[in-house]
Amino acid sequence: MAVNAEKIAPPQDFEALRAAILERRRELPKRLVQVAAYALDNPDEIAFGTAASIAESAEVQPSTLVRFAQQFGFDGFSGLQQIFRARLKERTSSYEERLRTLEQNGAPLSESASIFNGFVAAAHRSLDALAGSVNAAAFEQAVEILAKAETIYLIAKRRSYPISSYMAYAFGKLKVKSALVGTSAGIDDDLLSFAGPRDAAFAVSFSPYASESAGQARALALRGVPVVSLTDSVFSPLAECSRVWFEVAEADHAGFRSLSASMAFAMALTVSIAEKRRRDAQERPG
Amino acid sequence: MAVNAEKIAPPQDFEALRAAILERRRELPKRLVQVAAYALDNPDEIAFGTAASIAESAEVQPSTLVRFAQQFGFDGFSGLQQIFRARLKERTSSYEERLRTLEQNGAPLSESASIFNGFVAAAHRSLDALAGSVNAAAFEQAVEILAKAETIYLIAKRRSYPISSYMAYAFGKLKVKSALVGTSAGIDDDLLSFAGPRDAAFAVSFSPYASESAGQARALALRGVPVVSLTDSVFSPLAECSRVWFEVAEADHAGFRSLSASMAFAMALTVSIAEKRRRDAQERPG
DNA sequence: GTCAACATGGAATGTTCGTTCTAAATGTGG
DNA sequence: CCACATTTAGAACGAACATTCCATGTTGAC
To answer: Which first-to-last residue range defines the signal peptide (chains A, B) (predicted)?
Structure first.
């Protein structure tokens, strides 16, 4: 009975435990910090491993794990492990898995239903890919370029036109001056002839690339108009004439792509630009 | 050495195991079927429980679990359990969780980056909601209505315009006759006056509803043109004049919505329609 | 420099685990 | 109804487990 143990109640879920670990991080002894770091970095290991195997991976003694758990109010290591296991149980199953369960339990899916599910799954994948491939610094730079432009010229044809048209709509609502290029044939080049270095352009083009879009973007770049672009491949002709460019690989279902991820990207960019303008205006009023 | 054991290799992943269990379901003895059912219904229990605890839940003896595992080529219960655990490990973590890890490890996210992540997360949520809310039978019905239409009239204004414009593009590629209503003011009503009962319309409208879209849809419905619609609320004026209608609740980030889920829906509908036409044409050539 | 308080490593311990084994039960073909 | 094969239940066993305990190491105050 030497230890005047603080009998605090142990965290009941993973989030609470995580918060508690983070909070007490600094006041913990060296080995316990080591365990803390390992636990938060390798939660799956904690969930599945045995005290001995985890101890070996984390390069501590099994007894250290027990002491760590006790520090946070658990009876022993097992109690702490329960939290890590519960976390995995509660985690909703992946979309594909839910799909399969659906097919399994009910009647076999009709063709339309499986096409529908295919597109939803593809959209999920696209969003994951988007999140993984977009560099935060590049995004920030793109926002800066476009936020300080007087007029934002939106260049898009064919498959990418819906993206720009939505951006044009949103920019209108957000009181950001923009011009949608690609609406009616003929007036496009006249419109673009107004663009100067104080403006900027956002070009979207997916394979098969509309050569017109690439040509317009190149012409603008030559005249000193900064160009930001969104495309689906590193080999896009747009990439070479752009200050900043992004690659978004839309997953396809049966050869057809939806624009789900591109839409999310476009809206994020649009709102970021408007938000940056708002803040800049606040800082330097006039 | 009495048992002339079939030394088949055990399944290496959960899917293979599942398939093997389903395949051999009928030839297994009673208690093993009992285990099989329990295992597929409560995979998480198998992953985390002990042989004893699982045996109690499944109302069999622990030894039965071992025999079950051996039936499928594993050395013992533990080998089988590994498969159930691997399944949980491989399951990618939820997007929100990955986000938090990102914020935690690196520097605090810039405003643009967090807006970006917010839209990606919102898009994921929207897709989940979409998958949950769209009724397979209704979708099938919508496909049927639109597939047998001579011309598909696409009605959309403002925020929903990008959806229809992409559908129009895709229909063009798929050789499905469609007309996009909402391009230039004035000619819309002239265009719609051609529509008859042998055609169909697909209307998209989100709040705040463009009264023009609702009016056009109602006019078509009165003239016997079947209308299918996509909207974001049960109270949409479109719903009442539509044969079939769908509700897609796009999650928003800071009050702004991207059209990610709607886009996925639109493409699924578009491709389903084209596919149905292709099959109908094959069955009744002429 | 000394001592107390705390942290750590590693062996010891009692428990629980998965597995094996055997006898009883159940089903099957003649 | 019997002989036989298969399936099952439950006890027995050895290995692996989480935990405890204590000697040793480390730190910081005085």
So the answer is: none
